[in-house]
Amino acid sequence: MPTLSAAGLTELKLKANDVRQGIIRSLLAAGSGHSAGPLDMSDVFAALYGHLMRHDPKNPQWPDRDRLLLSCGHIAPVRYSAMANFGYFPVEELLTLRKFGTRLQGHPERVRLPAVETTSGPLGEGLAQGVGMALGAKMDGKAFHVWVVTSDAEHQCGLHWEAVMTGAKFKLDNLTAIVDRNFIQIDGSTEDVMPLEPLADKYRAFNWEVFECDGNDMAAFVETAQRAAQFKGKPHVIIANTVPGKGVSFMEGDYTWHGKPPNAAQADEALRELAAERERILADAPR
Amino acid sequence: MHLVDYRDGEIKQVPTRNGFGEGLIEAGARDKNVLGICADLSESTRFEGFRKAHPEQYIEIGVSEQMLVAMAGGLAAVGKIPWIASYAMFNPGRSWEQVRTIMALNETNVKIAGAHAGVSVGPDGATHQAIEDIAIMRVIPHMIVVVPCDSVQTKKATLALSQTWGPTYLRFGREKSAVITTDETPFEVGKAQIFRDGGDVAIVACGILVYNALLAADRLSRGFGIECRVVNNHTVKPMDEAAIIDAAQSCGTVVTVEEHQKHAGMGSRVAEILAQRHPTPIEMVGVEDTFGQSGDPAELIEFYGMGVDAIVAAARRAHERRPKP
Question: Do the domain assignments include residue A1?
């Protein structure tokens, strides 16, 4: 994949901002759903759809496309907003989130929206399916890459570690997991609920190549993900350190925003902050 | 129907799992996308032959049944036809939520082979005797559930299901059981078979107990003058409703026979159909809301009320309850 130009970096930052605004609008319209995780993964999703993945929004079933699995289905608003902003469907459709008859189910369903690749929501299952896809690609000599976005708390699921073990056995270097390391889950801090640390050491002990970066620093994440995807001989994980609720000051770092949407006043405030952030990105852009 | 002469005391006995092993080898030769994925039970689930015949289509992942289902979902998503096999108690027993989400809601072409089903597992005891698996699988939308009557039919079912798109559960057992069908006996998923005809009582059976149902029908004819229709109801889902209703209309009373809890199994589905469309007296043969235990397979079948005597008794009760003209 090509290196990222300065103009390309600005473009991705603007896309991440668009994705965040789409998340706020869709959550307000839905009246329920998760805020913190989608906001903190907006930079990662903008990078994946905008730079890292081979994909074609006009041909979502292209057999050689890279696969992107969202294991933690509850942060679906970020995926939907990214898909809309990268041309998979009209941005206005985001306002149907969680409503009767929508393709944008509360948790993603492949049968209703094939480009989400799989049905997810029950935690700890995405990496296992990604292992199957990556192994299938190897068996058939296909060159596509498999990306799996996971939450940190779903590392408390046994099945996730069965998948980690299996990925290492088959040396699936066409597989990259991305951990949304925001340290929050429904009942509080991951380290209070069920400690995950030392998370990187756990992956190393399972024979994975581990990368870490600031998941809200676009340049750092893109550079790290490119290095990870090219690493040969084992599967890779990127521990993306993120700030829950990133981009909306009153949500940042507050676990109580894990599973609730903004009300109208909060959404207005959030959109004002994001509009201001957009102006700063443009002002900082290289001329 | 091309049945062997099951009255012959020398009837051949072969485990149904052998039919799965043979069928899978052939399915793998017909289509290179057919895979076998094993969770550390290659010999007992009869994956060994497939592994030797098609090593490049065989995947071993160790003791991880949830992984079996989820990984197979990923492989199916990129065009493979994965058969995943373990003991029915562990897959789908342990992996049910993955089965529901990844196979059924997600509509993937994953095939589960549930081995060692029923109390006829024998000495391993209750932990390994799946007698609730039909219930948990037949309740899932889109799922195809097949319980063949012998090893020959299990082979045919394996081949047919390999070519039938959709999430699938094939259930079979460990112990040797009578081979009552031949290579010529027809088999079609979703099509129940009349193995013996009679107008007094319909015995609707699945799995290895179809043989006991046939023996019971002979005894009922000789000893009591009760003529039974014996239906091999191998496809629990989608069930052949027309065949069930026809059996009830023709005989006026029904006995269901399965190596499973009476609760929520094949017989319960028969009851659901008949209660709604053709109310008919029903007697059920199966496990009565309890767990199994260690023992000899034949002894356990008898103890838990699924032997020939129990079927004869159930048919006589059913006959008594037959509506009088």
Answer: no
Give the pLDDT band (50/70/90) at residue A286.
Answer: confident
**Chain A residue with minimum CA distance to B60:** A166
Q: Flag if B74 and A169 touch (Cβ within 8 Å).
A: no
Number of CB pairs, chain A paired with chain B, less than 8 A apart: 93
Q: For B106, which residue in chain A has the nearest alpha carbon?
A: A119
Instruction: Answer whether B77 sits within 8 Å of A118, measured CB to CB.
Output: yes
Domain range enclosing A131: 6-284
Q: Cβ–Cβ of A129/B71 closer than 8 Å?
A: yes
The CATH class of the B13-178 domain is alpha beta
Minimum distance, in Å, between the CA of residue A258 and any CA atom of chain B: 23
Give the nearest partner residue to B105 out of A67, A109, A169, using CB atoms.
A109
Taken in order B77, B82, B85, B89, is the CA torsion positive or negative? positive
Strand pairing class (B34-38; A236-241): unpaired
| DSSP reduced 3-state for A1 | coil
CA distance A135 to chain B (A): 7
Q: Quick one: DSSP state of residue A3?
A: P
**HSE-up (13 A, CA, CB side) for residue B20:** 31
Contact B78 A118 (CB under 8 A): no
Q: Split chain B (325 residues) into runs of 10 and give each run's mean pLDDT.
A: 83 96 98 98 96 98 98 98 98 98 98 98 96 98 98 98 98 97 98 98 98 98 98 98 98 98 98 98 98 97 98 98 88
Distance (Å, whole) CA A12 – CA A23:
16
Is residue A59 situated within a structural domain?
yes
Of B61, B70, B80, the CB nearest to A125: B70
A270 found inside a domain: yes
Q: Report the alpha-carbon distance of residue B54 to residue B29 in Å, rounded.
A: 8
- Read off the CATH number of the domain in which A95 is found: 3.40.50.970
Q: Cα separation of A127 and A131, whole Å?
A: 6
Closest by CA position to A218, among listed A246, A251, A183, A190: A246
Does residue A3 surpass a pLDDT of 90? no
Indicate the pLDDT class of residue A33, thresholds 50, 70 and 90: very high
| Structural domains of chain A, count | 1
CA distance A146 to A74: 20
Contact B66 A128 (CB under 8 A): yes
E-assigned strands of chain A? 67-70, 146-151, 175-181, 184-185, 188-189, 209-214, 236-241
> CATH number of the domain at B193-319, please?
3.40.50.920
DSSP H helices in A31-70? 36-40, 42-47
Chain B residues with CB under 8 Å of A120 CB are: 101
Instruction: From chain B, pick out residues whose CB is under 8 angstroms from the CB of A162.
Output: 61, 64, 66-67
Tokens 């190393």 correspond to: A204
B279, B252 contact by CB (below 8 A) = no
Residue of B nearest to A115 (CA): B77
Kindly provide the ipTM of the predicted complex, given to two decimals. Answer: 0.95
B65 in catalytic set: yes
Does this model's pTM top 0.90? My answer is yes
- DSSP category for residue A106: S
